[in-house]
UniProtKB/TrEMBL annotation:
Protein name, as recorded: SMI1/KNR4 family protein
Top-level taxon in the UniProt lineage: Bacteria
Length: 183
């Protein structure tokens, strides 16, 4: 098990491996023209869809996906990411000073991987050819923050209350679960 997934399990108290069958990740480049970071793939396979804390929902394929569905289950996730990119490109045209990034599917653009109930968005900055080198960028109330870490490390940092900017992103309430799987 990856260290970041083990840390997520430790913080949340939720054992990984309950999401169902793993997606055939090797097919993503042929199907969609890109690979996704290894920590995201491991998280999807270990946990499936759900909400982190009481606010942040990662964009994750919905089960059931199996032999017949394969990597096609990822299509709707990338469609949502493209819609978010299109909306933000429109805002960038009107307010260029507030939107300093390109957006997927623009080359090197931000690719959305999650969003919060208050409009917050989490992205990978896809400038590197290696998706495991993609940093995370978080947008909240016109404030952009770059984190040189992967998605799961960012979730662990937020849940561990190690960053005031991220505290509200996941918004765990006292006594509520830190991971709420979608049923």
């Amino acid at each position: 098990m990856r260290d970041d997934i083990a840390e997520f399990a430790r913080i949340t108290g939720v054992v990984p491996g309950t999401a169902g069958p793993a997606l055939p990740w090797g097919d993503t480049r042929a199907a969609y023209g890109l690979d996704l970071p290894a920590d995201y793939r491991a998280f999807v396979d270990a946990y499936g869809p759900g909400t982190v804390g009481s606010r942040l929902t990662p964009l994750i394929p919905l089960p059931p996906y199996g032999v017949g569905t394969g990597v096609a289950a990822l299509g709707p996730v990338l469609d949502v990411a493209a819609e978010i990119g299109a909306l933000l490109r429109g805002l960038r045209e009107k307010y260029p000073e507030g939107f300093p990034y390109f957006f997927y599917p623009e080359a090197g653009g931000l690719l959305a991987w999650g969003g919060g109930v208050g409009g917050e968005q989490c992205f990978w900055l896809t400038e590197d050819v290696d998706p495991d080198a993609w940093p995370v960028v978080v947008w909240d109330r016109a404030d952009w923050r770059r984190y040189d870490m992967g998605m799961v490390a960012l979730l662990n940092r937020a849940l561990g209350r190690q960053d005031a900017f991220l505290d509200e992103l996941v918004g765990p309430r006292h006594g509520e679960p830190l991971w709420n799987p979608e049923r």
